[in-house]
Amino acid sequence: MEHKSTTQLMTIHCFFYTQKEKGTTNRMLCNCCIGPILGEFYSCSSCSYFLRLSCAALPGELQHPGHPEQSLFLGRFKK
Q1: DSSP 8-state secondary structure symbol assigned to residue 36
Q2: Would you call 4 helix, strand, or coil by DSSP?
Q3: How far apart are CA 64 and CA 67, in angstroms?
Q4: What share of the chain is helix, strand, coil (3-state, %, to 5)?
Q5: What does the pLDDT look like over 21-66, one tens digit per residue?
Q6: How is 47-78 classified by DSSP, letter by letter?
Q7: What are the distances in angstroms from CA 2 to CA 10, 17, 63?
Q8: What is the DSSP letter of 32?
Q9: Which of 10, 27, 50, 59 pairs with 41 at a CA distance of 20 to 30 A?
């Protein structure tokens, strides 16, 4: 699976399906939603970039009836 990072412009990550082993105590966070990763996830083969399965399935662009004049794009805001 390939995914263009929303936080690292023009970076393509090559993801592999991974499953977190039971009893693992290291805390991993999804790079999309910043939520904890439990169980199944995707991990990049060349860096420490992790995605929950649900976040990886999100569309990058969305047309919403409440906002018909322009597309909405998935992104993450930095504080």
Answers
A1: B
A2: strand
A3: 5
A4: 5, 30, 65
A5: 777 767 889 988 899 998 899 988 788 888 999 988 888 788 889 8
A6: SS-EEEHHHHTS-SEE--TTSTTS-EE-----
A7: 12, 11, 23
A8: T
A9: 10
Round to whole Å and give the CA distance between 29 and 37. 5
- Could you give the CA distance from residue 18 to residue 30 in angstroms, rounded to a whole number? 13
CA angle 51, 61, 47 (to 5 degrees): 25
Which of 36, 33, 37, 43 lies closest to 76 in space, CA to CA? 33
Residue reference for tokens 């290291």: 26
Tracing tokens 């393509």 back to the chain, one arrives at: 12
